[in-house]
């Protein structure tokens, strides 16, 4: 096999390992983002703590699960939280846009619908067709600020932003994350998102 053919095969294998679709679940104390690749051969779990009223604590499970192992993990989570309502399905999504905070709790912005815009060098580029803003802390730990008029106004403005101007390309996101890890860049996503959102108004 020629070197160029091996390179193409490697790119195809790498592309099939990208997580492309997600399911969000919740318990009283945590969110669980379950992601899978296109071929449904690799499943990953991301956990977000819901017990802190004004912080974001994220835990990435380094294990790559099979589909059966992943759903067994979800079953155990449900059983372990049965006394407080168990594990509940929230929504299907295609990724996390980011996290943002105004005066009270943090919110998670997710992509709930995407649209194909085209391809770049064989890689599909999607646009955000629909998004959703989700309060991370559970209602039982929220302060009065979370229900204030100012907080509701900021939340409404964010949810009304035109996310259609965002574009998704898996190979670009992968490159960005590798650069961040390589140079140990820690970005203030709250500032970036705020500047971006209000520029869309």
Polypeptide structure, described:
GO terms for molecular function: phosphatidylinositol-3,5-bisphosphate 5-phosphatase activity. InterPro entries: Fig4-like, SAC_dom. 32% of the residues lie in helices and 34% in strands. The protein is α+β, with helices and mostly antiparallel strands and 201 residues long. The protein has one domain (14-199).
Q: How big a fraction of the residues is strand?
A: 25-35%
Helical residue percent?
A: 25-40%
Number of helices: 5
Shape: flat
Average of the residue pLDDT scores: 77
Strand order of the largest sheet: 4-3-2-1-5
Give the termini separation. Answer: 53 Å
- Cα-atom Rg, whole angstroms? 19 Å
Tell me about the biggest sheet?
Answer: 5 strands, antiparallel
What class, by secondary structure content?
Answer: alpha+beta
Low-confidence stretches: 1-16, 169-177, 183-201
- How many domains would you count in the coordinates? 1
H/E series, N to C?
A: HEEEEHEEEEHEHH
How many E strands? 9
Provide tags for this entry.
single chain; 201 residues; alpha+beta; 4-stranded antiparallel sheet; 9 strands; disordered N terminus; disordered C terminus
